[in-house]
Structure formats: C-alpha cells, structure tokens
Write a structure and sequence with these properties.
It catalyses: L-threonyl-[protein] + ATP = O-phospho-L-threonyl-[protein] + ADP + H(+); L-seryl-[protein] + ATP = O-phospho-L-seryl-[protein] + ADP + H(+). By secondary structure, the chain is an alpha+beta fold. About 25% of the residues lie in helices and about 25% in strands. A six-stranded mixed β-sheet has the order 37-41-42-40-39-38. The two termini are about 55 Å apart.
C-alpha cells in the first residue's frame, strides 16, 4: 500500500515536470515524431510555435512543418520544400549523426538536414519560429531560417542568393509557379514561371531596384524583417530601403507578424492578434505588386494566371477565370491553365463548313495581348470575326481600335482591360456549345422562313392559308420526328441511331477489318456527314447481354455524354434485334501498340505528350464526367492516335456493357495479361485504382518502348516482367538502361526520372498507396513534386 502511495505521489509531481520539459523548446537526440493524429509536436518555450506533422485535407497525408500554434488556424510558416506531403506512419528523428531525418513508413529516407557533425547535442524550437540544431558549444549547426519555404518571420534575415517559392495552392504545399529571389546584385525580385519546378521562362513582375550598378558599395546585401514587422533591404554602407509601405503599425506585444509569397504570386505582410478570439484572420499590412495582372504579362509564359485564363484584379489580388467554353485543366488549381472543350480541325474548315461547325463566344473587355500571330488593320468587327471563323489556326480574335488581332492556342497573359475596350471572339464548336449559348446556325434561316410564310399567308385566300398551314405543320412534324429518331433516340445525347442496313452499306458489307478485341471486331466505313464523306470505325459487339435493351441504351447514352479531347468520340449506335454496334470517329494513326513497339523508337517528346494525354483522359473518366467510368482494360491496343498523334482512349464504358447480366458487378472482368491490378484476384472491392495500375504499366511501356510481358527468352536477360526490371534499374540508378540508345530521353534525365517514379507509384500492389489519376497527371506535368516511391511489391526481396 505504501509502495502504491509513493508511486502516486511520484506521478503527481512528475506530470507537471514532463509538461514543463516538453515546453522548454529543447529536443534531445533520438527524439522521434510519427505522422498521425496522436502525434504531439515539439513546442517553443512560449508555445507560440510548433514543429511536427500537420494533417492535410487528405487525412492520410501529413506535412512536416513549423506553424503558429496558439491561433485557431495553425498557420504554417515553414515546411520541407523537397517533400510536400508524406503518408501516415512517416517519422522524423533527431539523429545524432546527420540531424533531422524524414522517413516514409517503409523506412526509406525522404529528406534530411545533412548537418553531419560529431558535435551535435540537441535541437531547439525557438520562440522566433526558427528550429535550430545546436552543437555541444551551443553553436548553430543548422537552422530552418536558412532554408525558408514561402514565409519569412520577424528577426529572420535573408542573404543574397536566398529564394522563397510559393506553394501550389493554399492546401497543396508542392512548389508553385512564383518565386521571391534576392539576387546577388542586391535586387529583390518576384518571378513567375510557366510551370513549377523549372528554371526557365522566369518573368520578373516586381523589382525592388536596390542594385546600384554605378556604386556597388551602396547595393543591397541583406534583407531584414525587424521586430516591428518592417521589412527592409540593408545596403553595403548600412543604409536601409523599406519594402512596402504599411498604413498602420500594430503593436508588437499584441500581434504576430509574417510575410508570405502566396500561391497567387502576391508577396504580402500580415499581422494577427496574439490573443485571438472567435474567427479572427490575418490582416494585410501591404502587398506587392500593385497590379500583377499587368506586371506579370511578358513575351513568354502564361502571365499571372494559367494559359487561356483571364486575370481580374480584386482588392489587389488576382482572380483567374476560364472563359465560356473552357474548363480548368486542374479543378483544384484556380490559378491554373484552362483547356478548350473542343478539338479544332483544319480539315473540316478547308471543306468550307466553318460556319456550320463553329461560332463565337463574345467577351467585352477581355484581351490576351501576347498571343498574336496575325494583325489585320484596318478592319471591322464583322470582318475580324469572319477572318477568324474561316482560319483553322485561329482560336480567338481581338478587335480594338479598328484592328483585328488573330490568336492561336494557348492564349497567354489574359486580363480584363478597362481602358482599351477590346472585344474578344472565342471560337467554339457548335456541338460543344458552352451552357447558356444557343449554337444552332439554323435559327436565322428559321426566322427568314417564318417571315416568308407570314407574307404568303397575309396575301392569300383563307382556303389557301388553311392548306399552307396543314402542309407546313406536316412538314415540320416529319422533319422533327426524323431528327428525334436520328439524333436523339433517348432524348439524352447527340448520338445518332443507325439502322443495321445503313452500317452494312457504310462498311461495304463489313469488308475492311481494323482489329479484334475483347468486345468484338472493328471495321472501317464511310459515312456522309454534313455533305461530305467521313471515315468511321464500326464496332460489332459480340459479348453484350441480349435481353437488356433498356440498360444497353442507358449505358450507351452514358458513353455518348462524354466529351474530352483525349477520348475517342462515340457518334452513334445500332440496337436492332441481335445486332448491336457502336460507331466511332476514325483514328487514322491507329493504335498506340502499333506505333510504340517499332524501330526506330518514336520521339521522346511525342511519347511524353501521349502519356500525359492518356492521364488527362483518365482523370476526366474518373472525376469529371457526369458518371464515373472505370475503364478496366487500359492497354496500348485501347489507345488510339488521331491525325496529330494526340492520344485518344477507346473502349471506355464497355466494362458495364459486358456485365449488365451480372448484377452490375465488375468482379468477373480481368482485363489483359500484364496490365491487371492485383486486387482483381483478391475478391476485394474494385475501384478506379485498377486503371491507375494499368496506366502505370502502360507508362513504363511508353518510357522503355518495351512490352509489359516479354517472351520467355527475355527471362535470361532479366526483363521478362517490365515492372520488375524497371524497379531494379531504378534502385541501381541505371535509368539510362531503360532508354538505351535514345539520346533525346537521355538528354532529358529530369523528366525521365520523374516519369519512371510516377510509373512505379502507379504499379504499387497496395492500391491505397497508388495516387489518384489527378495527382498522377499533375506529377507527370511537373505541377506536383514526385517523392521517391517504395518497392511496388511488399513481398519483393
């Protein structure tokens, strides 16, 4: 009993002592934090700042960071630039040999401070927000202030050569497009890039002009953020030049301060009450530049917003918008590029059908002043519009001051000009008319017809009027009925309904076979569309359940509602007795399979563009179309190439057509050997991650120009299974072996390594580790940084 009482007293006194120890800022060697909800951070003595793992929107991802701990929103002020997020179970350890070490759940090192010293004694989380590694003599061996992310804090100084990088978005901490650079000449500049993680196309959109070419002894050499929240550049002769002009000076004792380069490219200084109550936010003291929509415009790059976007200045911040007919390439990146919702074809325009195919969205005040390829002056507004309509290269035209500026895609440096009063004409395909826009070219003719009919009625006898009315109604009814049957059999899509006889005639009795697949045979045909003959591909389905007509049409309509430039377009179908056929647009350059595995290899640039196109198409199927579509059979044979070698995914939506008589489960589909995700064989729930796995295999094939499963003779050479061989080469740092004799790929090792790492992430056996297709697409395009992947198979040696 006395023993128990002694321990109780001991713990009563020990608990406050432990709490005190955790809040003195000192971190002993060997200390470890684990990325999970229960992880307690390392706090500064006052508790103002914390070092540890912050949970992100994706609850299984965490950010190693430093943040303001005593305010509700836990504002992050520093994070590891080389790894924007880490999975649950990752650890950071204060190692006696190299300092802080970040590892993933498998123990693979992701980042370290590399503070190699036998003098390391402890870590210290300072009340200034600076995490310091201390030596035995209390010297500083490494500190976070020397490696800023997107924020600087009071008492932090930057030497020339220092860089801050914006994050991708408020919730995505991967590197964004904007940087703050303190140049060696003493200038503090803000720069924008076309893409993150690149070192080219830097456009300076703010310059402190603190370099002195004629008197270098008076140039800036140090940036100082003082206790009062004032940021200044100190010159070589100890003069100061203040950055920003605050209109008020909040008391230091009552407020926190920071300066952050935001994801929209604005450098701003903020303050926040220390004793925050309610939902108080950070308040802006000053910001630079004054008008980023104007100053970020340059001959190269996309401007303050992404390509094809329009920049509007609202309260000093850029607001980026996609014009009608365009959508964000990445819906999670509101400052990113916009993509057109249609594919333009010169072949169509050359046939003289431009007026039937295209029309314009008119936007008053918008301009993309750096995208001109032809200037016409003098011109009229009507002439400008017509010139763009009949020019297959023209995506938009700007009319101002009696001058017409014709523009190609992508459109750059878009903004709303309140002074020049331009009128923008954005071309769109009528079949892809933006919501709320009437795209039919027949309406003016309809109005003319009505006027003629009214004139005849007024000048004729009553009896003739009756006959004319009956005849007109009958004619309109028959035309309407025909259009309904032909173009809208279910009132839901623009799919055309074909009779079996029509398709027999179009294919010349199914004479020319294009290929055979899991779903049937594909034949080439010719069809009259808009008074000209167009090639089509007709797929005869031979494995579709025959007793589910209603469900078949429902699934076909789902396919017909898809609209993306990286998908093969479904034109119509036939559902006549036992005959079920699908009619697609014809892709002249055939399958990726016949294109990829040839000698000589296709160019590296074209292969990477094809890979990114496939990824975008899968993002659309998984996340952007009205009903999620899981392909279930991604392989080179199901990727077609159009006239311009753009990748087009085919056979999407077919999986459901095959299993409509199987209670709508996908458990019996197995895809194609070499591309099948492991979960198919584990009797587990199948998700869109099966397509991610198949895409990963396909990506590695595109990189290496090798099939996923080689013949048995290749076993001796060690690459019978492509995924295994790629992992071995990646581990052994032999990436050049993957693309042997491909000089173009070897000269682009940064992209090569990025693509290989993305491929390995996609083919992870554990589906929960695989990224979603949206992140895959972002990683391929360099928007999101790619971490080092673990071994794809947890059972591999």
């Amino acid at each position: 009993m006395a023993y128990t009482f002694f321990h109780l007293i001991f713990f009563i006194f020990l608990i406050p002592l432990c709490s005190l120890a955790q809040n003195n800022g000192r971190v002993p060697l060997g200390s470890i934090l684990t990325a999970n909800e229960a992880s307690n951070p390392w706090l500064s003595p006052s508790g103002d700042f914390a070092f540890g793992f912050q949970q992100l929107e994706d609850k299984d991802l965490f950010l190693l960071s430093i943040w303001y701990h005593n305010i509700p929103d836990k504002t992050v002020v520093w994070y590891v630039n080389s790894s924007d997020s880490v999975p649950r179970g990752s650890t950071v350890k204060l190692d006696a040999q190299i300092g802080l070490v970040l590892r993933d759940p498998q123990g693979f090192q992701l980042w370290s401070t590399n503070a190699i010293s036998n003098q390391l004694d402890h870590g210290f989380m300072n009340d200034t927000g600076n995490f310091v590694l201390k030596g035995r003599d209390n010297s500083s061996l490494w500190e976070s202030f020397s490696f800023p992310a997107d924020t600087i804090l009071p008492l932090q100084e930057l030497e020339t050569g220092s860089v801050l990088n914006s994050r991708h978005s408020e919730t995505n901490f991967s590197q964004g497009r904007f940087s703050l650079r303190f140049l060696d000449n003493g200038d503090l500049v803000l720069t924008a890039r076309t893409l993150p993680n690149t070192t080219y196309d830097d456009v300076v959109y703010y310059d402190s002009q603190t370099s002195k070419p004629t008197n270098t002894s008076n140039s800036g050499y140090r940036l100082v953020f003082n206790r009062n929240g004032i940021i200044s550049i100190v010159t070589s002769n100890n003069q100061t030049e203040q950055i920003g002009s605050p209109t008020l000076f909040p008391p230091v004792s009552e407020d926190y301060f920071r300066a952050t380069l935001a994801s929209d490219g604005i450098l701003a200084s903020y303050y926040h009450p220390r004793n925050s109550t309610g939902n108080q936010n950070w308040t802006v003291l000053w910001s630079k530049p004054d008008d980023i929509c104007d100053t970020a415009a340059a001959a190269t790059g996309s401007g303050a917003c992404g390509y094809n976007s329009i920049c509007n200045l609202v309260n000093g911040r850029p607001v980026c918008e996609c014009p009608d007919g365009y959508t964000l390439l990445d819906p999670n990146d509101k400052y990113g590029s916009c993509m057109p919702n249609y594919t333009q074809s010169c072949g169509e325009v050359e046939q003289g059908t431009a007026g039937e195919l295209y029309d314009f969205v008119v936007i008053n005040g918008a301009d993309w002043p750096r995208s001109d390829y032809q200037v016409m002056t003098p011109s009229t507004e009507v002439g400008c519009r017509e010139a763009c309509l009949h020019d297959c290269f023209c995506a938009a035209a700007i009319f101002r001051n009696n001058t017409c500026y014709k523009k190609k895609l992508p459109l750059s440096n878009g903004w709303n000009s309140g002074v020049l009063n331009p009128v923008a004409f954005l071309k769109y395909r009528k079949s892809d008319a933006p919501p709320g826009i009437e795209g039919s070219s027949s309406r003016p003719k309809d109005r003319e017809t009505l006027i003629v009919v009214e004139s005849v009625l007024l000048g004729s006898s009553f009896f003739l009027n009756i006959l004319l009315i009956v005849a007109a109604c009958s004619g309109f009814y028959l035309i309407y009925k025909k259009n309904i049957v032909k173009s809208h059999p279910n009132g839901e899509t623009n799919l055309r309904y074909f009779t079996y006889k029509e398709l027999v005639e179009a294919t010349n009795g199914f004479k020319e076979e294009l290929g055979r697949g899991s779903f049937g045979i594909v034949y080439k045909g010719e069809l009259q569309i808009s008074s000209k003959s167009s090639a089509i591909a007709v797929k005869k389905l031979d494995r579709v359940a025959q007793d589910t007509e209603k469900e078949f049409r429902a699934e076909v309509n789902t396919i017909g509602q898809t609209n993306h430039k990286n998908l093969v377009r479904l034109l119509g179908f036939c559902d006549e007795g036992q005959n079920r056929l699908l009619v697609y647009e014809y892709m002249r350059n055939g399958t990726l399979s016949s294109f990829l595995f040839t000698t000589p290899k296709p160019s590296w640039k074209l292969r990477t563009q094809i890979a990114m196109g496939i990824a975008r198409g899968l993002v659309y199927l998984h996340e952007e179309c009205s009903i999620q579509i899981i392909h279930c059979d991604i392989k080179p044979q199901n990727i077609l190439l159009d006239d311009y070698y753009n990748a087009r995914i085919s056979d999407f939506g077919m999986a459901k057509l095959l299993v409509m008589n199987q209670s709508r489960t996908l458990t019996n589909i197995r895809g194609t050997k070499g591309y099948v995700a492991p979960e198919w064989f584990r009797n587990t729930q199948v998700s869109a991650k099966v397509d991610v796995y198949s895409f990963g295999v396909l990506l590695l094939e595109i990189i290496c120009c090798r099939r996923s499963v080689e013949d048995i003779e290749s076993v001796e050479e060690g690459y019978a299974i492509l995924t295994d061989w790629v992992w071995d080469c990646f581990q052994e740092r032999r990436l050049d072996t993957l693309v042997e004799n491909d000089s173009e790929a070897l000269n682009d090792k940064t992209m090569l390594e990025r693509f290989v790492k993305v491929g390995i992430w996609c083919v992870q056996e554990d589906s929960s580790i695989r990224p979603k297709m949206r992140k895959v697409s972002q990683m391929l395009e360099g928007i999101v940084e790619v971490m080092v992947p673990p071994c794809p198979s947890p059972f591999a040696s």
